[in-house]
């Protein structure tokens, strides 16, 4: 019996359960995903490029080449950003369009750097970047007039901070950039003015000022306070850590490496086979493992695993990976598809019960209202089917009719309201309740280029019949 599989023989109708991947006992540095967000021209790509240089990911020769090319185009101050802004359109206009990607290591950790676009035309790309991140770096320009443009209504600073929190960013580093600008010259009054205006707003976005937030001054162009501490002659008032020191000392994030496997596909492409990119939401994957891709239920085999563009035999929850898949064509995959453990598939639904908070809306929402939902890496048109009840913002409880003691069913909802609603999606997508998988159950609603609401999925279609409004 020594050579016989212990699961053999099977009883009639029984199937061998696929073995869940287990993490090999190989010690490696903790991986943290950081996304650079903020208003256009705040200096996100420049800081990202400078970090790659300071951590040895971009050599001096490459940087000198970028500097020479940038000078020829009269774009001298943009050369550092070219390490992340790689296509001609981005370099010509000095605006990030796609989410740039880089990798670097510190003494204790390795980082995946995601450089999100700041222009409001590319917010959907920014949401995709933030959904893959653990830590957000909100880059603020201290230059006179630039902070105000980004923070006042219509600027991207507010929207980016709110979207980052909704996408699952746990910690936010507010990097006040361009402190070396002639209009600022490391002035502590300007730094404190920006800090005091931002702090109440970020608290409103549910970032805890004590545990989730840190402010620090910097110059992306000169590299001041990125790796080396500030010169006390230049800036005697800041005594906190440098940016890289703070990142290196971050505590480890809680990962669900032993749960069922989930990876939401952010991007797919062909490279000697079918490649998919994304962040592992839950579980562990090993080479040659069989997974199921949803919603089309195709069985696929993982041929190669790349972490930070380096081959690996395994990857776990929290890792940003590229997987080479066998038994599926690239054209059969879309962003928003989810790779799952074959014995624990994600849910597919086109009707959901949600809790939403309306953050900015000129008109009202009533049944029949249409908008766009961004959830994990999926984008889908949705329609409001029914407003189920309103919540009291102070208590979080449902508003009751004092006469009948039943929940009040609102006819419409306006800016500032928190409601339960049933949404109808234009087609079924991979989706989970927030209580099961936070990353796949939180979303934003957008209309006409603006974020109008944030929310979480409470129940999905098969369970909707059991929804009680009591």
Q: What is the secondary structure topology, with strand pairs?
A:
Blueprint: E1 30-37, H1 44-54, H2 60-72, H3 88-93, E2 100-105, E3 109-115, H4 123-130, E4 135-141, H5 146-151, H6 156-167, E5 171-177, H7 188-204, E6 213-217, H8 243-248, E7 262-264, E8 267-270, E9 274-282, E10 284-286, E11 290-294, E12 298-307, E13 310-312, E14 314-316, E15 320-326, E16 338-340, E17 348-358, E18 370-375, E19 378-391, E20 418-430, H9 438-441, E21 442-447, E22 450-460
Parallel strand pairs: 1-3, 1-4, 4-5, 5-6
Antiparallel strand pairs: 2-3, 7-9, 7-16, 8-9, 9-15, 10-14, 11-12, 11-16, 12-13, 12-15, 17-20, 17-22, 18-19, 18-21, 19-20, 21-22
- Main sheet attributes: strand count, strand direction, barrel closure: 6 strands, mixed
Query: What structural class is derived from the secondary structure elements?
Result: alpha+beta
Radius of gyration: 24 Å
Please mark out the parts with pLDDT under 50 across 5 or more consecutive residues, or reply none: 1-19, 464-470
What fraction, in percent, of the residue positions are helical? 10-25%
* Overall body shape: globular
- Portion of residues in beta strands equals 25-35%
Mean pLDDT equals 83
Task: Identify the strand order in the major beta sheet.
Answer: 2-3-1-4-5-6
Total helical segments: 9
CA-to-CA gap between the ends?
Answer: 59 Å
Q: What is the strand tally?
A: 22
């Amino acid at each position: 019996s020594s050579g016989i599989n212990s699961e053999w023989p099977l009883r009639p109708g029984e199937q061998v359960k696929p073995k869940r991947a287990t993490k090999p006992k190989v010690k490696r540095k903790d991986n943290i995903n950081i996304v650079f967000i903020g208003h256009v021209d705040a200096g996100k790509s420049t800081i990202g490029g400078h970090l790659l240089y300071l951590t040895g990911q971009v050599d001096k020769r490459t940087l000198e080449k970028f500097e020479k090319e940038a000078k020829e185009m009269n774009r001298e101050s943009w050369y550092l950003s070219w390490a992340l802004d790689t296509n001609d359109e981005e370099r010509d206009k000095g605006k990030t369009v796609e989410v740039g990607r880089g990798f670097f290591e510190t003494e204790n950790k390795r980082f995946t750097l995601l450089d999100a676009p700041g222009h409001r035309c590319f917010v959907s790309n920014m949401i995709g970047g933030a959904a893959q991140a653990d830590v957000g770096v909100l880059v603020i320009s201290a230059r006179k007039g630039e902070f105000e443009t980004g923070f006042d209504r219509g600027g991207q600073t507010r929207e980016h901070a709110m979207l980052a929190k909704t996408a699952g960013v746990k910690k936010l580093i507010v990097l006040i950039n361009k402190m070396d600008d002639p209009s600022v010259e490391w002035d502590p009054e300007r730094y404190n003015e920006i800090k005091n205006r931002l702090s109440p707003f970020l608290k409103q976005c549910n970032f805890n000022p004590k545990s989730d937030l840190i402010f620090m001054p910097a110059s992306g162009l000169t590299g001041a306070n990125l790796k080396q501490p500030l010169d006390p002659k230049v800036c005697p008032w800041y005594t906190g850590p440098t940016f890289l020191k703070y990142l290196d000392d971050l505590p480890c994030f809680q990962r669900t490496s032993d749960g069922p496997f989930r990876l939401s596909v952010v991007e797919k492409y062909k490279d000697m086979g079918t490649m998919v990119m994304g962040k592992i939401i839950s579980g562990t994957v090993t080479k040659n493992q069989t997974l199921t891709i949803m919603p089309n239920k195709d069985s696929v085999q993982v041929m190669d695993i790349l972490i930070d563009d380096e081959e690996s035999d395994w990857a776990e929850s929290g890792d940003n990976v590229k997987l080479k898949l066998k038994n599926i064509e690239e054209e059969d995959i879309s962003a928003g598809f989810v790779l799952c453990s074959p014995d624990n598939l994600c849910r597919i639904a086109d009707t959901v019960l949600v809790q939403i908070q309306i953050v900015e809306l000129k008109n009202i929402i009533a049944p029949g209202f249409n908008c766009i939902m961004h959830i994990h890496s999926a984008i889908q048109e949705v329609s409001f089917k029914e407003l189920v009840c309103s919540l009291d913002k102070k208590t979080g409880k449902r508003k009751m009719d004092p006469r009948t003691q039943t929940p009040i069913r609102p006819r419409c909802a306006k800016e500032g309201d928190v409601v339960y609603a049933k949404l109808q999606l234009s087609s079924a997508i991979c989706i989970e309740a927030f209580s099961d998988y936070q990353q796949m159950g939180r979303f934003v609603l957008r209309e006409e280029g603006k974020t109008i609401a944030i929310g979480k999925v409470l129940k999905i279609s098969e369970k909707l019949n059991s929804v009680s409004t009591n």
